[in-house]
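Friendly challenge for the regulars: who can give me the structure tokens for this chain first? No prize, just bragging rights.
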Amino acid sequence: METQTATTTAVVVVVGPQQVLIYDTTLRDGTQGESVSASVEDKIKICHRLAAFGVDFIEAGWPGSNPKDAALFARLLHEAQHEQQQQQQEVMATAKYAATSTTTTTTTMARTVFGKLAAFGSTRRKHVAVQDDDQVQALLDSQAPTICIVAKAHAWQVTDILRTTCDENLAMIQDTVQYLVQGGGDSDGGDTTSDNVRRGRPRNVMVDMEHYFDGYWHNPEYAVQCCLTAAQAGASCLVLCDTNGGSMPWQIQDAVTQLLSRLHDQDCHVTLGIHCHNDCGMAVANSIMAIQAGVGLVQGTINGIGERTGNADLCGIVPSLALKLQSQMTCRSQLPQLTKLSRFVDEILNRTPHAAQPYVGASAFAHKGGLHVAAMKRSPDSYQHANPSDVGNESRILISELSGRQNILGKVEALMKKGHISSSSSSSSSNGDAAATAAATLEDSAVLASNRAAAILKRVKQLEAKGYTFEGAEASVDLMILHSSKEYCPPFEVLDYSAQVYDSRMDSASRFFQYDDDDDDDENTMCRATGLGPTARATVKVRTIETRHPDLKDNDNEKEESLAVVHERLEVGDGNGPVDALAQALMRALQPVHPSLAFVELMDYKVRILDPEMATGAATRVLIEFKDVSRETTWTTVSVDTNVISASLNALIDGLEYALLDYHNAQDSCLLSSNNSGE
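First reply, four minutes later:
Bragging rights claimed.
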């Protein structure tokens, strides 16, 4: 399926649900959401990721409204032009040295991004000639191949909010669309394949019909007339907007069906689009219903970000179209990358991912109830509407007081597959019939696993009664299972610790400033903000293991056997607080023996008071999120204690132990239980 571009002369009408164009407005409408902001660099990164995913249009901003968006379009144009020049130079070099070079290496991503760009703006101002409207000129100056303008399609909004006549609003629509379609004037008929897009080049123009659905129920004739005016002026797509987000799915379907009938009666061939807000929680449903009724373009944002309660979530719309309606989309083949795209955008915009987000959320395919997990063992279809791998997600089994034995068994099996615990019974015989022995081994393993699961489940329920929560701390569950296994030994052991907090300035205001002692004039003494230095010191004593490789003996040239030497290390760490100091000391003690910990970062630290009525004596729950930057993996651990320092240290220990599961030698680790000590 080919997307519409500014260079097409014949309008290609796209009709859903068979074919659907995806129009992303994350960088324009999405950034109107509360606490959502993106720099030019952030927007460029997101543009490239959206283009790689295969969306058809990327609405990057409103160049006439702020300098940042104008700079963004200028940067993207420059990148595309630079890429074109590089490729031309490589082609010339290839032709000159054809005997030694036959390929070019320049990518086309920058031009791909620019070819998908859409600049957003509005119709000309009332009673102002279109060529004299600065924001209309800014749309042309952006040189974006597609321009989307917003126009009022609600008679009351025109007369009472815009404060003009309905006829003037129609003229504003007609004048602006015609002007932009012609590129600000008559097309010069020049080379439309050139990367140097000039002002006179025709543009692909779409019109956002603002408040269309509310306007349709208020005055249907005028709402339809706005659409006809835009289409007859040359618009390629009429985007029907549920601007206030108050429409219901059946209302959307009815209005779309009636508009399509009117356009057909007028012999007006144009693609319809849909743009929904989520104020009633219906944005995705309304978008799907509109497409089912014949709309061929859908606007939305990644993760549904946007003003008020947000926009239609493309992370819900795209997979529903692909998997439920079998719609053809340019991005269909990239669907397994959807979860990564969702989390990438959240990361760039510094947002916490929504765990319960359909399709791409961490909990989208998470199973907690024991009966559900037991059914999932028999068939994943029993409690999943889709295969999580289709959208790049995965199934998860949650552990809580509501879990059944199957939840734990699923975790045990996962750890067995990773090789962290043995799947065979240690009592199996090496003699006799091999098949009988194998069967006995499997039976023993099943019994052991079932008994282990029952014991772990009992422990989970006891701990959750005290305030633990394991649903977001799966690493702690894995470690609990491992510690219940006889063959597992931890890679290190914390023997004792101490933490001290000190401060030389007890005035809370003065802690943030350092005074200039060189100035003798007290009245003119200056102070400058420095931030807090180390305010805590911690010591940690750790027992860990160093595996020494064989060396040659000096006297007989024979190799020594490999030795695993137990070390007891005492380290000190300074930090901004006791927990930070403990983390520093623990890392110093472990990294010399376990260098892979250098790649581990602490990403988040959360503390919650469980029984506030106990005041300072309350139990505290600590969750710490870790990340291995070398493998791009994250995990979370949990601990509860009336001493927040102890709870924090236990969560730290678990997190670092979990980080070492794929690195340390379990057999050597068993030496931790011995009385040997290192040098």
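The mean pLDDT is 81. The chain has 19 helices and 18 strands. Your move, everyone else.
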